[in-house]
Amino acid sequence: MTHHEEAAADDGGSAPAPASARRPARNIPRSPFTRNARLASLPLSFAGRSALRIGKRLLGQPVERITGELQRRTGEHLFRVLGELKGGAMKFGQMLSVFEAALPPEVIGPYRAALTMLQDAAPALPVARVHAVLAAELGTDWRERFTSFDDEPAAAASIGQVHRAVWKDGRAVAVKVQYQGAGEALLGDYHQLGRLMKLFSVVTPGLDVEPMLDELRERVAEELDNRLEAAAQQAFGKAHLGDKEVMVPEVVDFSERVLVTEWMEGTPLSAVIREGTQDERDDAGLKYARFLFCGPERAGYLHADPHPGSFRMLADGRLGVIDFGAVKHLPDGFPSSLGTLSRLAQRGDWA
């Protein structure tokens, strides 16, 4: 999950939590029957809206208006269902939202707002459920580790949410708490999503989503263990200690379902992409590319999540990296085959 606002899953830092992250929500539906029924409602509702569109066309309403309404409602329904289910459903939606920017505006435009919302936020769980996880993972005296803990989440995402707090030594920290039932939700959702490929081909035409879903299935165990994320973050932090271009927050404490790291202020990368000047976007892109390609050599890992919520630009010009839940262990360095592919792509030698 992306940290602060996926970390707010697009970000946090100094950015306020979106309204949807502040809204309480029901517990994650755990019953496979309930979750499958909610996911199945997506293609059924789309079919119903398509039938309604045909009826309106027969009555002489403008095609453009009818099509726009169909796409808008489909996008809103997609976000609502995937976001409220969290788990694998939302994570898959977030992955789609990364790729939608590469599709033609006239094709993906009506869905863009709904998909981008999946990057930015998700309905939060009741605070009592968060406290229960903290007590189970850190002990019933978990509050003694903090001088303050903000019950209102700074971010809510696919398999957890982030709270701002002050550690017992006075440091501002981000506390990532994994939802109860997240594991079952991930495994069940990926199975059901495999049956809905036709719907996603409508939402993201021309994009082969099946390999993306297969990759997510393979990463389930890693996503559910914050101890693995803590190890990766510590490795990157050590590799970039004193770096002039990249900043990695220190890991303060962790367990299987809780991760505490230093809080990082900064401008969300999504804001730089959306509002920054060309020079600012170029600077962020160059620093991200350097960070990405040097990871296997310097830290033994490839950072595998290009989600904007994983990054922010700091006041001193460095690129802050705040989420390490999706990494690939590459102790032998950057694979030569990927280097060859990158070189050929830069040269435009697609064949």
What can you see in these coordinates?
The chain is α+β, with helices and mostly antiparallel strands. It contains 15 helices and twelve strands. Strands 1, 2, 3, 4, 6 and 7 form a six-stranded antiparallel sheet that branches. Strands 5-11-10-8 form a four-stranded mixed sheet. The protein has a two-stranded antiparallel sheet with strand order 9-12. A hairpin with a 4-residue loop joins strand 3 and strand 4. Helix 3 packs across helix 8, helix 4 runs parallel beside helix 6 and helix 5 packs across helix 6. It is globular and about 60 Å long. The two termini are 36 Å apart. The N terminus is likely disordered.
The number of strands is: 12
Report the principal-axis shape.
globular
Main beta-sheet strand count, sense and barrel state: 6 strands, antiparallel
Portion of residues in beta strands equals 5-15%
Overall average residue pLDDT: 74
Number of helices: 15
Work out the helicity level: 40-55%
pLDDT below 50 for ≥5 consecutive residues: which ranges?
1-26, 46-63
Secondary-structure element string: HHHHHHHEEEEHHHHHEEEEHHEEEEH
Can you lay out the helices and strands and say which pair or pack?
Elements (H helix, E strand, L loop, with lengths): L2 H5 L11 H4 L9 H27 L4 H23 L1 H13 L5 H16 L6 H12 L7 E4 L5 E2 L3 E8 L4 E7 L3 H12 L3 H7 L6 H9 L1 H4 L2 H14 L6 E2 L3 E4 L3 E5 L4 E2 H7 L2 H21 L2 E3 L7 E3 L5 E3 L5 E3 L6 H12 L4
Parallel strand pairs: 5-11
Antiparallel strand pairs: 1-3, 2-3, 3-4, 4-7, 6-7, 8-10, 9-12, 10-11
Helix pairs in contact: 3-4, 3-8, 4-5, 4-6, 5-6, 5-8, 8-10
